[in-house]
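Researcher: Next sequence.
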Amino acid sequence: MDKRIVEFITALRASGVRVSLAESADAFNAIDNLGIQDRETFRIGLRSTLVKDSADLEHFDQLFPLFFQPGTPPPMINASNNLTAEEAQKLAQALHQFTNQLRQILVKMIKGEPLNQSEMQRLEKMLDMNDITDMRYQNWLARQMEQALKFREVQEAMKELMEMLQKLGMNKERVDQLRQMMEANQQALKEQLRQFAGRQIAENLAKQPRQEPMDNLFNRPFQSLTEEEMRQLHHEVNRLAAALRTRMALRLRKARTGQLDVKGTLRSNLKHGNVPIQLKHRDRTLKPKIVVICDISTSMRHCSELMLSLLYAIQDQISKTHAFAYIDHLEYISPYFETEHPGQAVGDILKSMPSGYYNTDLGASLELFIHDYQDKVDSRTTFIVVGDARNNHNDPRTDLLQSISRRSRTTIWLNPEPAPLWGTGDSDMLKYAPLCKRIFQVANLNQLTVAIDQLLVNH
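Model: Next structure:
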């Protein structure tokens, strides 16, 4: 049990829950005193010692049953027990019409048999689950396993099976009973796959190597960063910005050797009798003009904070930046950067819009932008949205983003969430995506730095 608790604590840390060595020791002391006989007492003992922030309760509640709950599949019904010999014969005759793979799954749904261990291991190997360490992928991974088992084809096969049984003379009421039991068993199989996906991700989290403070900090997901780790990253912003400035300056210098400027060449060579001794080229480069709108709700705060810090640290390579922050309303925040150091400016912005409960609403923020700030976007503007596109089921107002995209030179979206999560829950990303020229995943500082570098390459 001690080893299992250590694995559980490792998984919590990998999910972003801050658990110190002292808190780990407190957890073991609590379990020594409380014992493990009563599962609920055991759960409360671990939760009270390991979780100190209410925001981390979700991670604890999600992981606990995956480590300390028996891995038994959900109960299923053996529908074949209720069949007469004649009905069983008709069922066998109807099943014979299907391919071997479909027939095997259909039989499992009739007999109420869960997938066995070897079948689950084959799915694990087929989908290569070893590198998945984000619990948000649980349902997505379960759907991938359903596809591998051809659940959609199974659903169609069930309909065909019911039709065949009726044609073979089975009573309609008995056919309906069989269908209902098979559908219940299919849902149980889906739940078995979901539980298995969760356990596999939990096991992967438990195997995560202990990270040194700075070794992998640039690759750590924003959502798992502690305040101390954010302070460490802020110290790195100036170094990263210096590298970005250097690369951007080199690009501008190389780009200035553009097309021959005939008029400029003639003017500069008048003293040589118009002999083109000194050639002039057109400077076809213009520093980018940027409008950026950042979601600074709790889930996006670290990402937007570092984005703004980096962007304003390279202002000498940008013509003009207009910055906005939003949660449930839009704020113009550029004035903060005109009078303060970027690090101090970001801190003051976050204080003015403190974290807490908000109804994040990008649609309303876009409406305010169109009404009050539309003139800040023109054909030279790179329009950037930094957010996860989760609007709490409010109107996304894609029509407004489309209007802004038409006015701007290009529209870029920086989203920390991976593409498989777009469109899930309250995410409107699939609606916004077609209106953007490029979309970058920026789940950590490395990805964010690369995105800023790339989005200005072809300006």
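Model: The chain has three domains: 2-68, 79-206, 224-255+286-455. Residues 172-206 form the longest helix (35 residues).
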